[in-house]
Write a structure and sequence with these properties.
The protein has about 130 residues and is mostly helical. The chain has two domains: about 60 residues; about 35 residues, no CATH class. The protein has seven helices and no strands. The two termini are about 50 Å apart.
Length: about 130
């Protein structure tokens, strides 16, 4: 747990001061403020009020710092997301195809017309 003996390393203290002074993403600044307050022996509740977070969040931030260091305390782990349907190569081909001249008999092109183009019948499917 985040007890009264919580102390930051000197290098971490300097980095936190730079983060707070420089500004940036709100979450990172809030977490930096929490660590700074805990380093100055504020209680969990006092640090939570200063950073406008819950006392449980203060405890979690301190635990992340003690277990894995400053970067872990300040930044979230990457979250899983959907796998992209198309990679960059396919996206580039689609853009090039749609931006090219329209097929014969049409004034303009659209993705559905591009799918029907005889040159590209094997590359794309209707979505």
């Amino acid at each position: 747990m985040c007890n009264k003996e919580f102390k930051l390393k000197d290098s971490d203290r300097e980095r936190i001061a730079q983060i707070i002074k420089k500004g940036g993403e709100g979450r990172i600044i809030s977490r930096a403020i929490v660590l700074k307050m805990k380093d100055k022996n504020y209680t969990n509740i006092e640090a939570a009020e200063m950073a406008e977070v819950t006392p449980r969040t203060v405890i979690n931030i301190c635990q992340y710092y003690l277990n894995a260091g400053l970067n872990s305390a300040l930044e979230d782990d990457p979250r899983p997301g959907l796998v992209p349907k198309f990679d960059d190569r396919v996206k580039t081909q689609i853009v090039a195809l749609v931006c090219s001249n329209p097929p014969e008999g049409f004034d303009r092109s659209c993705p559905k017309l591009s799918v029907w183009s005889p040159v590209n019948t094997k590359k794309f499917t209707l979505i």
